[in-house]
């Protein structure tokens, strides 16, 4: 894999940071490419070198910034156990709170894609843990997918106050670990 020029990385990050500053002040639908380029102090062609439009930018922010390291600590686990479940729930709950605080003006645009990205990241993380613990098996993807969507749903129930973290951990541990 070819290493990217640091200037390109800085410019790309500058555009994303500028957008994130704007999204705290304005509704997503009101933000223009001109607003983004002015905030990032770049010209329009530089923006289009990095992104097709503001929707492409929002997709990249979700992938690179908001979900990139959400399950970093979970991935360091050796096995799937109660601690892994707790860490997964806390990571999801934290991301939801962070999303609502950082992106309240674009919550509608971010939410569904963000939900999908979180589930995908957790699926990848859990599958890697299953493979590490039991060797690579085809059925690990399906099992990891099932668990990740379930863990996500329970985390959302906790965020919404329908479930406590303690009760959720006990129930999920019984389901996942038997």
Structural summary, described in words:
The chain has 178 residues and is mostly helical. It folds into two domains: 6-51, Arc Repressor Mutant, subunit A (Orthogonal Bundle), CATH 1.10.10.60; 63-177, no CATH class. Helix content is 75%, strand content 0%. The chain has nine helices and no strands. The protein has helices spanning 6-23, 33-40, 44-50, 54-66, 72-75, 82-102, 107-134, 139-159, 165-177. α4 (54-66) runs parallel beside α7 and α6 (82-102) crosses α8 (139-159). The protein is elongated, with a radius of gyration of 19 Å. 31% of the residues are buried. The mean pLDDT is 87.
Topology:
Layout: H1 6-23, H2 33-40, H3 44-50, H4 54-66, H5 72-75, H6 82-102, H7 107-134, H8 139-159, H9 165-177
Domain HTH tetR-type: 9-69
GO molecular function, one term: DNA binding
Pfam families: TetR_N
Brief rundown of the structure:
Keywords: DNA-binding, Repressor. With 178 residues, the protein is an all-alpha fold.
